[in-house]
Amino acid sequence: MVVLPGLMLAMILAMLDNMIVGTAMPRIVGELGGLQHLSWVVTAYVLGTTVSTPIWGKIGDLYGRKTIFLVSIVIFMIGSALCGMAGSSVLGGPDGGMMELIGFRALQGLGAGGLMVNVMAIIGDLVPPRERGQYQGIMAGAMSLAMIAGPLVGGFITDHLDWRWAFYVNLPVGAIALVLLAVKLHLPKHHNKVRIDWFGAILLSISITAMVLVTTWGGNEYAWDSWQILSLIGVAVVTLAIFIPVERAAVEPIMPLQLFRNRNFTLISAIGFLLGFAMFGAINFLPLFQQMVQGDTATNSGLLMLPMMAAAMVISLFVGKAITATGRYKVYPLIGGVGMALGMWLLSTMDVATPSWQTGVFIAVLGAGMGFLMQTTMLIAQNSVEQKDLGVSSSATTFFRSIGGSFGVSLFGAVFNNGFRDELTGTFGAEAAEKIAKGGGRMDPAALAQMPQGMRTGLVEALAGSISNVFWWAILFAVVVPVLAAFVKEIPLRGGPAAQEPQPEAVAG
C-alpha cells in the first residue's frame, strides 16, 4: 500500500496521455500542420509501446525490475518534454513540426511500454496470488479514471492553456511517481539468469513496423502496387518467416509460439486485436468529428467522450461480479462483439445534422460493447492456460490488443485521408480539392469559422463523410468478434468447485 500510489501514478501516466492528446489533436494540427499525418501521432506512440513491451519485461527479469521501471519513467518524461517542444522546424518543410512530434511520440511510447508491463509485474512481485486480484482491481479503477479524466483534462488544456501542456502535464506527475518509487519501492531479489531474445525482438519489431507502414501509406502516400508498398510487404513476410524458427529455438522467446496451439488463447488474441482496432479508432476520430463538424469546444468534446468511458467502466465492473458469482463467461464476449458492431454502425450513420447528444448515445453503445470484452478477454486467456504460463499469456494478450490499436489507427487514418480527398473532389472538383487539401493541413475550428460559408459547408460535409466512412470500415472488423467468441470453449474458472488445471489438449484445435 505504501508504493501503490506511485504505481497508480505510473499507470495513469501511460493511459492518460493518449486520451489528452486525442482531444487536443485538432488544435495541434492547426498549429503544426500535417492533417494527413494525424493518425501517426497516435500510431507512433502505440507502436513504440507495442514493440517495447516484451523487451522491457525480459530486461526487468535480468537487471532488476525497480531500476528498469525508473528508467522507463525517465524515458517517458523526456519524450513528453520533447513532444511539448515540437515545432522548432529542425526537420524543415511545411510539416516539419508534425514530423518532430511523431518522432518524439515514438520515444514516449517506448517509455510507456516499460510503465505498463512493469506495474503488473511489480504487483506480482509484492503481492501473493491469493490477494493479487484486489490490487489489480484498484489498478483497473485507476485505468478507468484515466480514460474518463483524459478527455476532460485534454479539453481544459486545449481551451484554456497552450496545447503543449497536454504533454508538459506529465512532468510533475512523473516526477512525483519517480521520487516516491525510488525511495519506497523495495523488491525481492531474484537471481534468474535470463537470456534476452534480442534477435527475435528485432525481427518482431521490423515486421510490425513494416506492416503498420503498409496500412498507413498504402493507397495514400503510395499506390498499393508501388515498389515502396510491395517492398514493405516483402520485408514483413520475410522477417515474420525468419521469426518463427528463431522463436522455436530460443531459450527465452519473446513470443512463445506453443501458446497458439491453445484454441482459446488464439481466439482471444484475435478478439483482443479487433478490440484494439475499435478502441483506438473511436478515440482518434471522434474528437475531430465533435470539434470540426459539430462545432464543440475541446472541453465539451472531452465531456462528450464520457458516455463511452463510463459505459465501459460500469459494464466491466458488472461483468466481473457476474463472472465471480456464476463462474460463466462465454456469453459476455458474444454480447460485447454484437454491442461493438452495433456502436460502429450507429457512428457510421452520423452526418453534419447529427446532434451532440445523439453522438453521445452512439458512443455509449460502443463503450458498453467494449466493457463486455475488456476484462473478459484477459480472464479467458489466463484461465485457458496452465498456471506456469499465466504471465506470458497476459503479456501476449496485451501485446495483440496493442498491435490491433496500432494497425487500426494506421488503417483508419489511410481510410480517412482517402475519403476526405474523394469528398473534396466530389464537392469542389479535382483541382480545387487538391489546393484545399494542401491548405487543410493547418485547418482547425478557429480557421474553419473564418472561411466563407460555401467553402466551410463543403469542408464540414467532407470531414463528416470521411469520418463516417471510417466507422463503416470498422464494422467489417467488429462483426468478426462475436463469430470468434462463439468458438471459445468455456473452461471452469480456477478456484471454483468444478475447476481444475486446464491442460493444453483440453482447448487445443
Automatic annotation (TrEMBL):
InterPro entries: EmrB-like (IPR004638), MFS (IPR011701), MFS_dom (IPR020846), MFS_trans_sf (IPR036259). The chain crosses the membrane at residues 38-56, 68-90, 102-123, 135-157, 163-183, 195-214, 226-246, 267-289, 301-319, 331-348, 360-381, 470-488. Residues 3-493 form the Major facilitator superfamily (MFS) profile domain. It is a multi-pass membrane protein. Its main location: membrane. Keywords: Cell membrane, Membrane, Transmembrane, Transmembrane helix, Transport. CDD domains: MFS_Azr1_MDR_like. One of its GO terms (cellular component) is plasma membrane. One of its GO terms (molecular function) is transmembrane transporter activity. It is found in: Cell membrane. Belongs to the major facilitator superfamily. TCR/Tet family. This is MFS transporter. It comes from Nonomuraea rhodomycinica.
